[in-house]
Description:
Layout: E1 5-9, E2 12-20, E3 34-38, H1 44-62, E4 72-74, E5 78-86, E6 89-96, E7 99-104, E8 107-112, H2 119-137, H3 140-166, H4 174-177, E9 181-182, H5 188-204, E10 208-215, E11 218-222, H6 226-250, H7 252-255, H8 259-264, E12 276-281, E13 287-297, E14 300-307, H9 314-344, E15 353-354, E16 362-364, E17 371-373
Antiparallel strand pairs: 1-7, 2-3, 2-6, 4-5, 5-6, 7-8, 9-15, 10-11, 10-14, 12-13, 13-14, 16-17
Region (Disordered): 337-375
Domain CCZ1/INTU/HSP4 first Longin: 14-136
Domain CCZ1/INTU second Longin: 208-324
Amino acid sequence: MAGDSQHTAYPKLLNLFIFNSTYGQKEGHEHEKILFYYPNSADLDTQVRHVGLAEAITRFSSTFRKDGDCEAVHTQKTRQLFMQPEPNIWMVMTVAIGWVSRMRESGPVREYQSEAVQDVVLRACLASLYRTFALRHSSFNAVLEARGLEGLKATLESFLTSYMSSVELSSGDILTVWSGVSFLPLDRQTFLRIHCCLSLLQASFPTIAHTAFFYNQHIVWCGLAMEDLRSLSQYLNTQLLPSRKDSLTSSTSSSSSSSHTSYLSRFVGKGVTPSLQVHVRDECGELQPHHLLLYSLMGVTICLTFAESESLTPQLFEKIDRLLESKVSQLASDIGEQASKKAGSGPGAEGGSGGGEGCRGQRWGEHSAMCTTTT
């Protein structure tokens, strides 16, 4: 029947690649420009052709637009987004536009749903990807200087393979555009107990540089700069914590075999000093390497950063666990009870989301929409 929908295709990622426009200047060496290409199943000629076309577009557009980069190319079937996060290094993403096949008198006709693919959303996805990379590795050029070209390619391959398996790059919403983060509303007493717990922790371990308190993907407290908070929140919620839940499920029986693994099981990571290297801003706003410790128990995740120069020992982890375990268990139980009551009181009771610019030392408390700056 005319007008009936027969088939539907949704937007999907066709390719994602990163290249350095200063490499591979000699004929026959164009492949040297490529730092990363997805899907890796594409043959080298296809990769070189796509990178060459993207580079030609950026150069051509620069003759007309002196005040910025080429941002997007539209065709009937695709959207191609461009981003230059660092000098001479481009990130390019191509997304296929979804379509609906409708039966007409002349036969089936595909109607492309271009309004469902927004440049601002896709560009925000690219920006979020780069921020997460910067959280772990500082920048492309920093990795290049430290590990060389092959080291940069290996780092990009490892990072992006993991990132793309957990984040849908071809879609997003308003929270993606504004790098939104979700805040948890709590009553004043519970919030002050959390504050006291973290203050005691920092007083007991003065080498702690920053703290953050999450409950089931919601932010309760954070001493990081807002830009770092956005990156850390996404990294936790899309990559670290989901994989931790899987590993805990598969190793429940073995993890309870000794007291040694008992306290270590509450830290995210492997080894006797489980930690990650991240890059967060110092007082001057410069990215600096830090150790990140993640303490996770009963839905609560506490993030602790230490300067890279600090030595992490098994004794430090055991002392942190001894201080936190009973306090976090009680806090998690009380927060869960509050969340259940709010969820039962009606829609919209569980908190809001925030974006916008922030500053170092922000604390979020009662009803979470409030943000005050401490001095």
